[in-house]
């Protein structure tokens, strides 16, 4: 009997070798689930097929396609980021040594690497939560193969759905997380840590990372601009296609594109993760260009203080898997030394975006509070 349309909306059932169902029908089911965007269910359907016929090539490829949709490729590059791993390992060892009895919570566990680092450092109980079910299942396998399943428990949930004592035996003493993108906020670190402080952590818990800064720089780069804009090409005006271009930021390695910096780096936002929340904020910066040129983009990156004295960043030229965040302007702006540029920066708790205007242009109306309520005249590089 072929699965019906209503079946496709239900959880994937278990099938057994004695079920009188043709594999071709389940392969078709897996494809339908995939086309509906139900990638995790599609992966399960293909896994059921592989349970009956482990050499079924279509099921193997189908499962991998579904997993690829749910699990981004950057996981592998991140795992090979040696500086990131070494700095987190150092910070985790220091934090666990200060409190060997600490209950450790790892949010966004991924491969389980940070959780296992905590166990290796001597933590007796680590709870690793991972919201993507296929990843969480694999995390459990990794932890078991590594021999740390006696100390590390994997919870297949988003941390914002976890409760004490259902998922944590008690409030955690140490939070370890790395839910950041190239622009720092894109994976929801502000709201996630704020929720954890309220519901999952002790009042004096150690939070890693403890702080984060966003640093920006004015950049001239026709190459970067062309990655997000088009005009007349091949005898056609393709400019209307720009309505589909990225309004916020995309990631790129600045040093791989011909460019000139038009200002010193400057700190835009500074977050203390022990107190910060996801409330939208804005700030106005008066930037003095260091060179004349055409301002095509704002390049920005982060610095994260894991613990005092241990800092991780993705600054330009740094061999970090995160790359840099690039926001192209809609139209290039001519800048000159001695003629300040006003940089309006806002974040909505998950994304930072910029607008640029000359000093004579009026500022935008905002529904978000300024970070400190004042305009800042930036004349020094971020330190």
Uncertain segments:
1-10, 365-375, 377-383
Structural class: alpha/beta
Strand content: 25-35%
Q: Quick one: overall form?
A: globular
Order of helices and strands: HHHHHHEHEHEEHEEHEEEEEEEEEEEE
Share in helix? 25-40%
What is the end-to-end distance? Answer: 67 Å
CATH class of the largest domain: Mainly Beta
Number of strands: 18
- The number of helical runs is 10
What's the Cα radius of gyration?
24 Å
> What average pLDDT do the residues reach?
89
| CATH architecture assignment of the largest domain | Distorted Sandwich
What name does CATH use for the topology of the largest domain? Hnrnp arginine n-methyltransferase1
Fourth-level CATH superfamily of the largest domain: Hnrnp arginine n-methyltransferase1
**Major sheet attributes:** 7 strands, antiparallel
Tell me the number of structural domains: 3
Domain Protein arginine N-methyltransferase: 213-343
Keywords: Methyltransferase, S-adenosyl-L-methionine, Transferase
InterPro entries: Arg_MeTrfase (IPR025799), PRMT_dom (IPR055135), SAM-dependent_MTases_sf (IPR029063)
Biased composition (Basic and acidic residues): 363-383
């Amino acid at each position: 009997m072929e699965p019906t349309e209503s079946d496709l909306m239900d959880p994937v059932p278990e099938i057994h070798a004695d079920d009188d169902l043709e594999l071709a029908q389940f392969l078709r089911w897996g494809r339908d689930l995939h086309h509906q965007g139900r990638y995790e269910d599609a992966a399960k359907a293909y896994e059921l097929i592989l349970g009956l016929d482990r050499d079924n090539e279509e099921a193997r490829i189908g499962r991998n396609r579904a997993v690829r949709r749910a699990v981004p490729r950057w996981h592998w590059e991140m795992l090979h980021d040696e500086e990131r791993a070494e700095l987190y390992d150092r910070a985790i060892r220091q934090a666990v040594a200060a409190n060997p009895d600490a209950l450790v919570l790892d949010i966004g566990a991924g491969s389980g690497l940070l959780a296992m680092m905590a166990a290796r450092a001597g933590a007796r109980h680590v709870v690793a939560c991972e919201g993507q079910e296929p990843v969480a299942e694999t995390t459990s396998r990794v932890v078991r193969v590594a021999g740390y399943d006696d100390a590390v428990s994997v919870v297949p949930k988003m941390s914002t759905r976890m409760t004490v004592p259902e998922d944590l035996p008690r409030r955690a003493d140490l939070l370890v997380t790395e839910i950041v993108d190239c622009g720092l906020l894109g994976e929801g670190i502000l709201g996630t840590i704020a929720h954890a402080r309220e519901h999952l952590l002790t009042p004096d818990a150690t939070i890693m990372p403890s702080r984060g800064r966003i640093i920006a720089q004015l950049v001239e780069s026709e190459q970067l601009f062309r990655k997000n804009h088009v005009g007349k090409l091949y005898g056609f005006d393709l400019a209307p296609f720009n309505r589909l271009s990225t309004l916020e930021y995309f990631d790129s390695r600045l040093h791989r594109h011909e460019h000139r910096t038009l200002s010193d780096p400057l700190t835009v936002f500074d977050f203390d993760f022990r107190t910060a929340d996801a409330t939208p904020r804005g700030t106005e910066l008066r930037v003095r260009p260091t060179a004349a040129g055409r301002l095509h983009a704002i390049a920005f990156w982060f610095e994260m203080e894991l613990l005092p004295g241990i800092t991780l960043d993705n600054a330009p030229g740094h061999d970090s898997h995160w790359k840099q965040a690039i926001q192209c302007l809609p139209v290039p702006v001519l800048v000159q030394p001695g003629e300040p540029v006003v940089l309006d920066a806002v974040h909505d708790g998950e994304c930072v975006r910029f607008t640029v205007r000359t000093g004579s242009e009026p500022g935008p109306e905002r529904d978000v509070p300024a970070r400190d309520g004042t305009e800042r005249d930036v004349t020094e590089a971020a330190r």
